Every structure is written in structure tokens, then in C-alpha cells.
Write a sequence for this structure.
């Protein structure tokens, strides 16, 4: 009874946090892209456009859900459903922190710890192709068909190096349970993380995995399925209303999931980059630094009228967060055992997500033949060679 | 700590249920909410404002089928890697040599399809047949006049 209640609470918390992340990732992406291009980005709805995700949802929900003539209605409706539902499942096996004890209840900071965690994530991400392929095919539109076809071929091609690059760290870790994977990398400095063991072999595997992850989530520079200037919007050209939003939500959910997976497997999960007593004060230092910068800019040189109020407000919030983390690190270990691991996990995931957006703001798109040649004749042999060399290293040196 | 199988998989089931509910709710709400105005022009497939020509479900390049087939072949290889990796530390060099043998066999097939041009999307059968001869071809063939007339 106790167990079921605790799991339900955890599911509600994680699911709520996950959906909020998805909504605000869109905002973050637009803001970061805008600043890369010397624009301001969303600015009108709420301070700094912070209510933009809400406005987008309301706007899309009140639009007409159109089913064009001659589409295959069943698959047309099934496609966004598949895309969204599959994208939201994998988060269940991601560990966010160690085992904690709260009010006499011992529980893991994750929804469930399966001994087939890695396989489950691979399986679900493979099925994810169907949403896009079916959506493209069922729409009865030439752009959608081309987008769906390209996307299916691209996603299955990049799944190969991704799978091999994911098998490489398992040679060192020898388990498919994501919780054990994260635990085996802890206790010390960042060179205990998988990405930095047997250098540079596993780092190469990490890079291969990351590149394949970009392609799997259809992100720039691999966004051929929705190449705007040739295919209008690719596989979701004919979709409107919340079904259209669903495809975007699925893309962002896949992005978050895949960065969580790479954090857990390659970057040590929730473990800080250097040993515990010192790393516990890093969050406080960071929050206070940002709070100070925001206060300084807001009070002394506000660039826009509203910055005079919003920047100090955000600065005070940041200082408060820093104080909470300071308390958590020193006198309130009951909060610290939750906040500190989650902080490091979120920090790593956030850095990787920023990398996704940064790359989108920087790189142009591949040509299709380049895309296919890159994975089959470069990534695949590199991943395979990396795997065999790592195997040799583990076999010879333990 | 969850011990039994049911306890391990219960949160996953709840998560799947939630995901299905959210996805189904989104798609259903998208179709139901919002005013509906039907007309023939709006229901046409979108082709940049032009009148759509022909059927969208046309034939497409055989390369896509080829990639699908190759993927299945190599993905089966990748599936074998996971159990191998998990027990690797117990078997060590023995497992390594076994896998090298397996990978070499797979790679033989890989280089075959590579050389056959199955991975090259710029090159189709027709473009290969009508490819203009390169300088090396001309030097080797000793038929400069014939090539020049072509």
C-alpha cells in the first residue's frame, strides 16, 4: 500500500515537471535562438514572454482541427497519438538521484528501476519512427510523403550507430539497469564517468551517440524531414490544431529523454564532477552569481523599461534559491539529499539541451545524400571500431 | 525497495496509461474544440496554393526500401551486442575474439554493399550508365577518338 502511494506521488511529480519542461523548452529555444541572431524573441506575453507557452497552447487548442479530403483518417489520427504517447513513456526509467529516506520511507529518486532499462528506451525510441512515417504517408500530400519517407530512412539509419555507441559503455558497466549504471560512475571525480574512461574511446562513443541523437530527434543539422524551404513542413504539413502541437511536443519530449539517457549513461547521472563536500556549494555559488549579475544589470543599466522591475525580481529569486541550496548543503540534509543530486542531473541535461539549441543556431542543413553517406560510411564504422577497441581494452586491462 | 515484478512494472504501467491519456486527450481535443467551417478548397491537399496535381501516393525511390532492408540486417547484429556487453567481464578475451569474428563477417557484407553503391544516394543506375569517362578511363582505354566522338 505504502509503495503504491509513494509511486503515484513520484509519478505525479515527475510527470508534472516533465510537461512543464516541455512547455518551457520551447520558450528557451526561441529565446536562445533569438539571442544568437541578435533578436529578443518572445517578449509580449508576460515578463520576457514567460507566459508564451500557455498562450501557444490556448491558441492552438482553439484552432480548427482539420481533416483534409482523401486522407487515410485512421492513420492520420493515429500518427500524432503514437508520436506523443511513445515520447512520454521513456522518462519512467530515468534515475534522477540516489536512494533517499523521507519520513521513514526509503525510495529511489526515479519512477522505476528495471533491469532492462536500456533495452526499453531503445525499443520505445525505435517504435517512435511510426508516428512520423504514418503521419507523412496518411496525409495524402506530396510534401508529407517525402518528409515521412526521408524521416523513416534517416531515423533507422542513425539508429544503427546509436545502438552500437550505446553498447560501448555497457562493456565497462556490465548492466542494463540505468540506476546501477549511474551508481557505478559515482564517488569521486569526473574521470570516473563513462565518457572519460578508456580515453579517448568512450568519449568518441559519446560523440557518436550525441550526433545520432540529433538525427533521431530530427534536429538541425539533420532536420531533412521538415526542411522548410523544400518541403513546407515535411510530415506535418497537413496537420493543424493540437495534433500539430503534438508532433512538436513529441520532438521536445524525445530531446529531453535522449539527453537524460546520455547524462545517465555517459556523464555520470546525478553525480557531481568533483567530490561531495566541495561540490555541494557549487549550486549556491552559481545562483548567487547569477542573482548578483541580474540585480546589478536591473538596478544600474536596464536596457528596456521593464528590465528595471523584472531583472531585480529574477535576481532576488535566484539569491533565494542559492540560500535554499546553502541550507540544503549544510543544516538540512533531508532536503539536500533530494535537491543536490537533482541539481547536478538537471544541470547536465540542461547543458546538453543548450547544445541542441546552440547547434540549431549555428549549423546549416545537410544534403540528403551527405546525410546518408555520413551515417553509413562514417559513423557506423567509427562506432564499431570504437566498440571493438574498448572491448580489447576492457579484456586486457580489466 | 520494490522487489516483486509487479512492483517493478507498476509505475511503468501508470506512466504508459498517463502518456496514452495525454496523447489521446490532445488529439481528441484538437479535433473537437474550435469552430468547424467545411469547404472544398480548404480540404484540398496543400501544394503552395496551386491546384494539386495527381496522387500523392506515388512510387518513390527504391533506395528507401534498400535502406530498410539493410537496417534490419545490421540491427540484428546490434541486438547481439547487448547480451555480449553485459557478460563481457566474465568472458574477457574469449568473448572479444568471438565478437571480432562475427563483426568481420558482417563487415564483409558491409563493404560489399558499400562498393556496390547501395549507400550512395547521388548515384542511380541511369547516371552510372551515362557517366562521362574520366581522364584515367581515357588513358587506360586507348580509344581516344571513340570517346571524343561520344
Amino acid at each position: 500500500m505504502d509503495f503504491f502511494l509513494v509511486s503515484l506521488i513520484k509519478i505525479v511529480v515527475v510527470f508534472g515537471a516533465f510537461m512543464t519542461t516541455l512547455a518551457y523548452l520551447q520558450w528557451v529555444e526561441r529565446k536562445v535562438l533569438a539571442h544568437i541572431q541578435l533578436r529578443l524573441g518572445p517578449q509580449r506575453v508576460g515578463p520576457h514572454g514567460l507566459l508564451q507557452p500557455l498562450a501557444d497552447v490556448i491558441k492552438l487548442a482553439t484552432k480548427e482541427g482539420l481533416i483534409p479530403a482523401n486522407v487515410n483518417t485512421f492513420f492520420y489520427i493515429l500518427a500524432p497519438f503514437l508520436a506523443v504517447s511513445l515520447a512520454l513513456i521513456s522518462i519512467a526509467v530515468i534515475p534522477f538521484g540516489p536512494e533517499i529516506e523521507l519520513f521513514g520511507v526509503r525510495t529511489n529518486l526515479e519512477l522505476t528501476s528495471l533491469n532492462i532499462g536500456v533495452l526499453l528506451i531503445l525499443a520505445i525510441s525505435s517504435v517512435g519512427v511510426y508516428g512520423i512515417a504514418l503521419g507523412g504517408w496518411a496525409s495524402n500530400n506530396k510534401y508529407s510523403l517525402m518528409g515521412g519517407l526521408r524521416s523513416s530512412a534517416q531515423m533507422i539509419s542513425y539508429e544503427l550507430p546509436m545502438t552500437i555507441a550505446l553498447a560501448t559503455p555497457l562493456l565497462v558497466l556490465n548492466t542494463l539497469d540505468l540506476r546501477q549504471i549511474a551508481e557505478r560512475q559515482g564517488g569521486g571525480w569526473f574521470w570516473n564517468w563513462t565518457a572519460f574512461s578508456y580515453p579517448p574511446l568512450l568519449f568518441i562513443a559519446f560523440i557518436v551517440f550525441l550526433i545520432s541523437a540529433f538525427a533521431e530527434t530530427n534536429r538541425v543539422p539533420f532536420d531533412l524531414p521538415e526542411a522548410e524551404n523544400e518541403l513546407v513542413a515535411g510530415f506535418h504539413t497537413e496537420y493543424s490544431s493540437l495534433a500539430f502541437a503534438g508532433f512538436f511536443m513529441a520532438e521536445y519530449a524525445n530531446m529531453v529523454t535522449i539527453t537524460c539517457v546520455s547524462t545517465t549513461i555517459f556523464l555520470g547521472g546525478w553525480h557531481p564532477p568533483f567530490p561531495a563536500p566541495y561540490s555541494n556549494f557549487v549550486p549556491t555559488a552559481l545562483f548567487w552569481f547569477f542573482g548578483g549579475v541580474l540585480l546589478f544589470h536591473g538596478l544600474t543599466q536596464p536596457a528596456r523599461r521593464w528590465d528595471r522591475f523584472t531583472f531585480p525580481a529574477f535576481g532576488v529569486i535566484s539569491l533565494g534559491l542559492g540560500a535554499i541550496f546553502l541550507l540544503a548543503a549544510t543544516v538540512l540534509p533531508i532536503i539536500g539529499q533530494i535537491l543536490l543530486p537533482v541539481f547536478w542531473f538537471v544541470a547536465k541535461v540542461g547543458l546538453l539541451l543548450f547544445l541542441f539549441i546552440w547547434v540549431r543556431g549555428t549549423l546549416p542543413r545537410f544534403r540528403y545524400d551527405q546525410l546518408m553517406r555520413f551515417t553509413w560510411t562514417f559513423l557506423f564504422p567509427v562506432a564499431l571500431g570504437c566498440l571493438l577497441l574498448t572491448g580489447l581494452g576492457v579484456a586486457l586491462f580489466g | 525497495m520494490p522487489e516483486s515484478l509487479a512492483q517493478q512494472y507498476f509505475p511503468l504501467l501508470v506512466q504508459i496509461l498517463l502518456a496514452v491519456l495525454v496523447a489521446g486527450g490532445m488529439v481528441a481535443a484538437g479535433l473537437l474544440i474550435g469552430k468547424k467551417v467545411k469547404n472544398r478548397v480548404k480540404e484540398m491537399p496543400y501544394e503552395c496554393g496551386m491546384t494539386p496535381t495527381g496522387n500523392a501516393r506515388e512510387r518513390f525511390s527504391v533506395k528507401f526500401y534498400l535502406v530498410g532492408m539493410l537496417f534490419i540486417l545490421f540491427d540484428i547484429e546490434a541486438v547481439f551486442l547487448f547480451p555480449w556487453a553485459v557478460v563481457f567481464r566474465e568472458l574477457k578475451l574469449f568473448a572479444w575474439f568471438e565478437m571480432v569474428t562475427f563483426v568481420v563477417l558482417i563487415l564483409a557484407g558491409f563493404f560489399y554493399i558499400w562498393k556496390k553503391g547501395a549507400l550512395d544516394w547521388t548515384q542511380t543506375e541511369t547516371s552510372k550508365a551515362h557517366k562521362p569517362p574520366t581522364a584515367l578511363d581515357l588513358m587506360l582505354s586507348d580509344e581516344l577518338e571513340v570517346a571524343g566522338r561520344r
